[in-house]
Amino acid sequence: MSALQPFLEVLSWILILAGSGFLLIGAIGTLRFPDFWTRVHAVSVSDSGGMLLLIAGMVLHSGLTLVTAKLILIGGFIFITGPTATHAVANAALVSGLLPRKKEVPKLEDKPSKIANVIKKKDPKPRTKAKK
Amino acid sequence: MIFLIATIALFVGMALILIRLYAGPTLYDRVLAGNAFGTYTVLFIGVLGFLMGRPDFLDIALLYALINFVGTIAVLKYFRYRAIGDTSPPPRGEPITRGQLKDRGAQL
Stretch B47-55: mean pLDDT, rounded? Predict the structure, then answer.
């Protein structure tokens, strides 16, 4: 066990660094993505992956103690409830009629200035289905 | 040292998600950001416990994880039905009227 200790330590560092990176990238995606449906992707995927990596790193760091049991409990719980909550949010948005953003596609015969305008233009208002 | 890096990364991520929570154009953006913020808080508390040499903080993190999930579902249910308690359908027999639906807060 003692000969294996440095390797476990380095592995835990790598896992914690990777998890922190995933979570940071997920947060940046949450801020920068243009649309609710893309933000669901950024939040859910990066949260699950980064959370698992970070908790695995902490488990390897703490060895075989009560702390490890608590960490595994937290990880398992978030692993189940995180996607469930995200699915509930996405389902509620779908039921309420929130639609994905529609992007205007520039045509080839347009002038370059118009194409640049279309690419630059953002869709500020979220689209919803017409009320009955 | 490694936990300090993780703490800073989580802190920056939480700040970015707070910006989205404030700016999010729709309600669902905000609920999603709130849920993500809860997950980040759980991990932040855990990492902070390791950083300060007191892994007992994990109990608090576990409690946060439990409350976060229930809170997200409760907020979603509230905004769907405008009520958290009894949202059961009316008893069989007579059909529900439009006025009763409006009393229950349905958006007609």
Answer: 87
Q: What is the pLDDT of residue B77?
A: 84
User: Do B26 and A36 count as a contact with CB atoms less than 8 A apart?
Assistant: yes
Q: Give the C-alpha separation, A5 to A78, whole Å.
A: 28
Count Cβ atoms within 10 A of the Cβ of residue A124 and give its class: 0-12 exposed, 13-18 middle, 19 or more buried.
exposed
Any idea what DSSP says for residue A128?
A: B
Residue A109 has which token pair?
Answer: 């015969």
Average pLDDT, chain A: 83
Q: Report residue A112's pLDDT band, with 50, 70 and 90 as the boundaries.
A: confident
Neighbours of B27 (CB within 10 A): 17
d(CA B40, CA B51): 16
Please check whether residue A52 touches B, CB under 8 A: no
Q: With an 8 Å Cβ cutoff, is B69 touching chain A? A: yes
- Which has more confidence, B97 or A34? A34
Instruction: Give me the helices (H) in B24-90, please.
Output: 27-51, 57-81
Q: What percent of chain B has pLDDT over 90?
A: 44
CB atoms within 10 A of CB B41: 18
Angle at B61 between CA B60 and CA B62, to 5 degrees: 90
Taking the CA of residue A37 and the nearest CA in chain B, the distance in Å comes to 9
